[in-house]
Write a structure and sequence with these properties.
By secondary structure, this protein is α/β, with parallel strands linked by helices. It is built from eight helices and 14 strands. Strands 3-2-1-4-5-7-8 form a seven-stranded mixed beta sheet. The protein has a five-stranded antiparallel beta sheet with strand order 10-11-14-13-12. The chain starts with a strand and ends in a 35-residue tail after the last strand.
Amino acid sequence: MTARIAVFGCKSTTTFLIEAIQARVPVDRVITLSPASAERAQVADYLDCAAYCADRGIDHHVVDDYTLKDPADQELIRGFDLDLGFVMGWQRLIPAAVLDTFGIGVFGMHGSADDLPIGRGRSPMNWALIEQRPHFFTNLFRYDPGVDSGDVLDTLGFSIQPADTAETMHYKNSLAMKTLIYRNLDALLAGDVTLHKQRDAKPTYYPKRSPADSQIDFEQDLASIEALVRAVAHPFNGAFTFVDGKRLTIWRAATFETDLVPFGFEDQPWGTIVEVFQTGKFLIKCRGGLLLVHEYEGDATPAVGQRCVPVGLEQGKFERNADGYHDLPAPPG
């Protein structure tokens, strides 16, 4: 008997995975989230997968409860008689009542800069960029009801390059997931896989990030500010600041020069716009050098001498561990 396959997800990465699986075997059902629920949950890069599936004749089920705890949804999923599930673009735990309906299991991916169980939790790719890590490990693991605690089937690591952004990290992670599924698909379909426990280390967890956490803190150094811009670029909400009380979102920026060549701006306070070029691109004085802003939008019109002044910025909101990173021993609440 051929295994019946489901995909859980509600993002553009979900459709990438559907197409990858469909290239090898049929996807029997897609379980996705309604637009209204996605808006309430502030799902970044949300995609109406129901419309996508309808256009391609793929059976699908739309839920309003992102947690999948609704008994009616659970009963419907049980009735789909599914064997194997894949998760991509579904940023919530899947309860045991749903997982137990799959004969082979539900498999998803979670990655971190130090490999599981280090770096469980939320927004691991964003955090890897923010922390200026050199590499990332994507794990294909079988879901259990815990927070990224399931047994691992396979792992693939990739580098994080200086020009990588949230967008390119999504591309790399999607390719990693596709590669992991392809090299394990025959065994998965046969229900004959060898899983291994996550390595023997005390688990750590990254905290949830919200759009408000993307405000730039100009007390930080130049490299940290540039890293934040890359980490929350598309498909996320973008890094932002306030100029003359008006919000300015910065989509792309890069180190222009260090303090070794100050260009006469050495006495300017951090967060000051020190030059605006004919193209509209501009320089911000930062601790350690100059940031060139390439792409931005908002109500503010940058001008020389303006200051980027914080509004409601929670400085030091995220705790750090002994290594200076943000993954902590306690799981997120």
